[in-house]
Amino acid sequence: MDSEVSAGIGSTTVVGRLALGITLLAFGLGTTGVIHGVAASDAVSVAHYVGGVALFLVGLLAFRDRDSASGTGFVALGALWFTWAVADHSSANAAGLFLLLFALVALTLTLAGGDSLGQVMHGLLFLAMLVLAAAAFAGSSSLTKVGGWVAAVCGAVAWYAATAALAHWPTALPGRAAGRGVTAAG
Predict the structure, then answer these.
(1) Predicted confidence (pLDDT) per residue in 165-182, tens digit
(2) Is 114 left (phi over 0), alpha (psi -120 to 50) or beta?
(3) Which residues contact 145 (CB under 8 A, 6 or more apart)?
(4) pTM for this structure?
(5) CB neighbour list of residue 168: distance below 8 Å, 6 or more residues apart
């Protein structure tokens, strides 16, 4: 694969976003309970190997390519997914604390900047983990489903961001003109 793909995103970023997207889709849809007989616990293998091991390795490859932003993000997220996959989920408060820490890492990645789709992706990840942490602390199944939906949407955004870079799809989010009094021509 080329070291740069069409949207100017490195190949490790594309692979990392695909891994994160698949993991979040499996975890999010499992958490919502929208598919009969599928629960978040069914996403453990995906979280362990794709979200954990693969994402961590992609982060190391990004560091090798001197992409410290993607490297930091993917290594941290890979370590968190791996930990979630092997953790004992018996204590709601321990789960809530872990999800809150996960949310803080996602918030850091959101505030670190980068391309707009990446910021949206990390922002949604932050929101999903924050809602899921609140749900764990409160013991709320309704909040858990909301957090699952936000995680699934985040997974779809991550998948789109990766696929768009490879398929030459639009990656810029619509925005306002830069500056006061600037109007669009036409």
Answers:
(1) 888 888 776 765 555 555
(2) left
(3) 31, 32, 33
(4) 0.85
(5) 6, 7
